[in-house]
Design goal:
This protein is mainly α and about 100 residues long. It has 6 helices and no strands. It has helices at about 5-25, 50-55, 60-70, 70-75, 90-95, 100-104. The longest helix is centred in the N-terminal third of the chain and has 22 residues, at about 5-25.
């Protein structure tokens, strides 16, 4: 082949290589090789005590009233150092005991 034709092929290959290299270096297209920084983790919220949960939960207001009437139980359920589980009946479940609870 004539030298001008080879020279032209070499020139076209260089153009394609240059175009490809510039395309790969454009970061908005997602081809960046820069490391992505790790996201800052959300701080872990402090655990609430059983007494705090009772005070905030509308459908546990009857149990909250009963617990607040017993200082020793309130102190126990207010201790953030204790890992407690309480199966708490809601207000509807305590309706049959309303007369007994109202007498105390």
């Amino acid at each position: 082949p004539p030298p001008s034709k080879d020279g032209r092929r070499l020139f076209l290959r260089a153009d394609y290589m240059l175009a490809l290299a510039s395309l790969l270096s454009i970061s908005p297209l997602g081809f960046s090789t820069a490391p992505t920084p790790e996201p800052t983790p959300e701080p872990t919220p402090a655990c609430k005590t059983i007494a705090e949960i009772l005070a905030e939960t509308e459908y546990l207001s009857t149990l909250n009233t009963v617990v607040n009437a017993m200082p020793d139980v309130l102190d126990l359920l207010s201790d953030p150092a204790l890992n407690l589980t309480v199966f708490a009946p809601n207000d509807t479940a305590l309706l049959p005991f309303a007369s007994v609870l109202n007498d105390t």
